[in-house]
Design a protein that fits this description.
Elements (H helix, E strand, L loop, with lengths): L19 H35 L6 E4 L4 E7 L3 E7 L2 E6 L3 E5 L8
Antiparallel strand pairs: 1-2, 1-5, 2-3, 3-4
C-alpha cells in the first residue's frame, strides 16, 4: 500500500533568517519614490497657488476653477469680486482663482 501514499521525509534545517534591514529596504525605497514623485510636486504647486492668491490686485484678469474669466474689481479677505461682463459682477472665493491672465487678454475675446 506504500505506492498510494507517499512517505514523509524529514526536511533539512531552514536557512538563516534574512537581515530585517534588508527586508525594509524596498518599503523605504517606495516611500522615497512617493515623496519625490507625488508629495513634493504637490507641495510646490500649493505654494505657488498661495503666492498667486496673495499677489492678486485690482484690475488683474483671472480664470476661476469653474472656467469663468473676469477682471478683479474688489478684494476681500476670503472673497474676490469679478466683473465677467459689462455691469455683471460676481463674488467668488479667493481659492477658486486658478490663474492670472496677462493684461489685455479679455479685451481680445
Amino acid at each position: 500500500m506504500d505506492f498510494l501514499i507517499s512517505t514523509a521525509h524529514a526536511q533539512q534545517a531552514g536557512a538563516a533568517a534574512p537581515n530585517p534591514i534588508v527586508q525594509l529596504l524596498p518599503l523605504v525605497g517606495l516611500i522615497v519614490l512617493f515623496y519625490f514623485m507625488l508629495i513634493r510636486p504637490q507641495m510646490k504647486r500649493n505654494k505657488e497657488h498661495k503666492q498667486l492668491i496673495a499677489s492678486l490686485s485690482k484690475g488683474d484678469e483671472v480664470i476661476t476653477a469653474g472656467g469663468l474669466t473676469g477682471s478683479v474689481t474688489d478684494l476681500g479677505e476670503e472673497y474676490v469680486k469679478l466683473q465677467i461682463a459689462e455691469g455683471v459682477v460676481i463674488t467668488v472665493q479667493r481659492q477658486s482663482v486658478s490663474s492670472v491672465l496677462p493684461k489685455g487678454s479679455l479685451k481680445s475675446i
